[in-house]
Amino acid sequence: MLKKSPPPVSIALAAKAFAAVFAAGMPSAALSQTTAETIPFVQTAEATLKAAQTSEAPADTLPIPQQSDADPIGERIRQTLQDSGEVPPSQIDQAYSAFQRGYFLTAFAMGLDQAKAGNSIAQTLLGELLVRGLGVKQDYEEAAGWYELAAAQGNAEALYALGRLHTEGNGMAKDPAKAAELFRRAGDLGQATALRELGYLYLRGEGVEKDEFRAAAYLTRAAYGGDSDARFTLGGLFVEGIGVSQDDVQAARWFGEAARSGHVPAQIEYAIMLFNGRGGPKDEPRAAGWFRQAALTDNPVAQRRYSRLLAEGRGVEKNPEEAARWYLIARRRGLHDKFMDSWLLTQDADILRRAEQRANAWPGGFLSAIERSKTAVQEQN
Fold this sequence. Notes:
Blueprint: H1 11-17, H2 33-38, H3 40-53, H4 72-83, H5 91-100, H6 104-116, H7 120-132, H8 140-152, H9 156-168, H10 176-188, H11 192-204, H12 212-224, H13 228-240, H14 248-260, H15 264-276, H16 284-296, H17 300-312, H18 320-331, H19 338-344, H20 349-360, H21 369-380
Helix pairs in contact: 1-12, 3-6, 3-8, 5-6, 6-7, 7-8, 8-9, 9-10, 10-11, 11-12, 12-13, 13-14, 14-15, 15-16, 16-17, 16-21, 17-18, 18-20
């Protein structure tokens, strides 16, 4: 457990007081033909593409769209589709469209020329494909080269991605201090995940001097930027009073924000606070709803807790069969509850038989979009 800091005057002031000051961005990284021929990873990228295109499994490729000045009718049709949103307006947008649809080799092929021409978005896309090994062989060093070119132009996503490589030591020496610098620059450009990672570095004292006050400040900025992990962590800081004044109301607020964005651990913590009336009015029905939603994602902690509510009729109508079903699912994942173990012994054999059959049929985390939507609507109401 981290040692608690003296309560700061204001977390908002902390965020303001410790906002990073960044150096001016580097000049454009557009690649001339000569430069492109002398950078090793550019040549490697071309070889990577050629190897992938000649492999025996080109199932993830689409033809690269070609435009012809000699086809004015076709151009008008293409422009009409583009204006209606049916066709992306540029080659890099088409590359991202292919990426989103799972045509990774096509995305790489379409992005390569743009990346060589100095397009930082295309350079970042190539880095992502190479880091994840999508459509091409995984290559951290080559990915780092493209990220560095994009980062030199101030691309926030590339700065963040490069920071992650330095944090993990993939494709380069592990360097948390360099990672902190990159996260800081990306965060200044509005990259919320980078702000979160910078906050984590300050919490752990990696690459920077340990400073819980600054950690909370950066996590607050990330939370306001929409990062659900930052919201969850910030809720925990308010529970423990780490880097901020201990405040159950703020803890419940941030757990709730993260829960509504689909963060399962936050859903559990928020449900616990609602059930106990901590940080707000006690509300067992809402707590039960959040436990159920987390249980449906196959979280065994939520399954065990929800089973007990069903067994006792707390916040939800008592239902022995459902209670037994959820507890059996959780118990198979190694979570036990003395109360529920004893409770099972008191239940009718037919109820337990049906519950076991249903537990055996549990798909292990399948939750339809309709089920998620229903739960979200119920919470909003």
